[in-house]
Design a protein that fits this description.
about 30% strand, Halobacterial output domain-containing protein, HalOD1, elongated, about 20% helix, about 100 residues
């Protein structure tokens, strides 16, 4: 499993979309540009808005799961505004997950 974390201090520098693509790129050991477009599987702008800070600075929490480029992707934000992106390789056809 590959895990990337974004703290509230680094949020203005990197989007959730960039963090997801970087995590999958690390798991695949490939260049970011070698991956298929993320927007083919999820609305990346909506995902970035979903995990963005609120206008009133109210803590936000939640979780989003989807599949991308052969990986199960789990994006989670906790109440201290830390975003964690975890990726696990999907196994071939049997529904189980292979850990890398």
């Amino acid at each position: 499993m590959i895990v990337h974390t974004r703290s509230s201090a680094s949020r203005s520098e990197t989007t959730v979309t960039q963090t997801v693509v970087a995590a999958v790129s690390d798991a695949e050991d490939c260049d970011l540009l070698a991956l298929p477009p993320l927007w083919d599987v999820i609305d990346s702008e909506a995902m970035d808005v979903l995990f963005a800070p609120t206008r009133t600075a109210t803590p936000r929490s939640g979780r989003l799961e989807f599949q991308y480029a052969g990986y199960a992707v789990d994006v989670e934000i906790d109440t201290d505004s830390t975003v964690t992106v975890s990726v696990e390789a999907l196994a071939d056809g049997d529904g189980s997950i292979e850990t890398r």
